[in-house]
Write the structure tokens for this entry.
Amino acid sequence: MRTTRRTFLQASLAAAAAAHLPSSLRAQQGQPARRPIPSTREEIPIVGLGTWITFNVGNDPVLRDECARVMSAFFEAGGRLIDSSPMYGSSQPMVGYGLEKLGRPQALFSAEKVWTSSAAAGPAQIEQSRRFWGVPKFDLLQVHNLLAWKPHLQMLFQMKAAGTLRYVGITTSEGRRHDLVEQIMRSEPIDFVQFSYNVVDRDAEARLLPLAAERGIAVIVNRPFRQGALTQRLQGKPLPEWAAELGASSWAQLMLKFILSHPAVTVAIPATSRVDHVRENLFAAAGPMPDTAMRQRISALVKAL
Amino acid sequence: MSEWWTYRPEDFLLFSPRTYWRMFELHNAALWPLHVAMFAAGLTIILFIVWRRGIRTRWIALILAALWIFVGWSFLWNRYSTINWAATYVAPAFFAEGMLLLVAFLLDALTFGRRPAEWAGYLILGFALAGQPLLAPLQGRGWASSEVFGIAPDPTAIATLGVLLLARGRLVPWLLPIPALWCLLSGMTLQTMGEPQAWAPYAVLALAAAAWTWAIIRPRRSLPAA
């Protein structure tokens, strides 16, 4: 179909309107719900795409194309935030390959990390990451696993002030160093914090999630399925009938809804190498969410299984 | 990185089993039919040891030296490092083992005579050449991802352990650590991936350790009482 000024304008208006749809209407249209980043009120879809393990496929042309198809399905289903790290092997060049193949989707919200014990090596690593992705600049840069966090955070704040970065964050995983994470959340003007939170690992509920809400810090949740261990454990087990009330047709969707229904969570980043799974994940962000009682029910059920 | 004790082996696994075994498929496809020459090199090593004709056994060290350097460069440095950045730190160890074997060749430092528990050496060598490549089809992955001596690191390291069990010489203790450590590392990687064939490098290590212990103890036990 030929694109005229009129059709382009209509499409743009439709896209702009879609971006401001109320969540109930967005759900009806199968679009993932959005939440605001507290520091700017910019809204992002509540399900993103992680790249840990799944996107580290080296130079394998078959697997690279599979990952590119996952990215394509992710954007088609309304996803925006993709998260990677220099620690993740070939995941960064893989993301760059996928973005290039998809014609550099405008919807992309790029989340990267700096991961080096040398403060001096930080800028060069970030520049290398930027080249891998093929983006002019990153939306979000995070200090990975709090490695050399003091000098890296200062550098990231300077980048933000200079306009070469939009958001600054820190990350941890698997419940490590929550005391230090809390200290940084209290003392530094970060926009994002990333940590592990899922239906069985709920330590973050005690201090980090309430603190993020109090301090206006966006929360990225990693390892929502414990790196696939939870979904594997529940494979073959029947889904409870009441899951249908939430529009969940799989354990993965039910567990994602548990995470996403916490009001302090901004976005969860499940990683997958399968197109059907990425669609399923984004669809989990479109329907009704569990209330407090239902959240307890989900958690108790998964723990019991 | 602090709090090392909180990390598990899974935290260091950067790739999926599918990506790992696909890597062998691609590597085999890229190097075929070099596998035939490598198998012939392995058979040559066994024949040289069996014949025990002095001058010929010297070449065993040279063959192994070339293979360690080749596997380190072609597999670890060029291929494995694309999914595991740690491989770039392991590749120099393969180069170092190759250099040590080269020194063994130049000094003619390995001799092959009758040894206690030498059956263990032959068994390990035979497994590296003929057993290890069968593990892929036996586990339903097909021949394409087979690990072949001289092409993949596991059978190369295992075969070297077998050769060293059959050898004597002052360089033997220097030649043992790198193949043994690789078997340990590979076993841990496979175990973390949940792959049943992790038993292979572990079993080889256990058998080699037992055979070495026996080889050290037995001559002493056979000494007459003073």
